[in-house]
Write a structure and sequence with these properties.
The protein has about 80 residues and is an alpha+beta fold. It is about 15% helix and about 35% strand. Strands 1-2-3 form a three-stranded antiparallel sheet, covered by helices on one side. It is elongated.
Length: about 80
Amino acid sequence: AFDAGERAVEKLLAEARAELAAEPLCALDYLELRRASDLGPVDAPILNGDGGRLLVAAVFDADSECATRLIDNMALGASEPA
């Protein structure tokens, strides 16, 4: 959604939640969009130069002995390093 031009925080989070919900083995624990500079809350639309970081924690295959908790983050915006 971000690459397609979406900058509204709630819409970006809703799109990410929908993507994760489509994976039947994924149980989302945490999903936040934060400022890239200091990981503070984003309270306005993300602008191209400002970037942002999407922070996520999820458990995959929670009902099995092989349950795996993944924690990751990704930069939004071309000017942000990965």
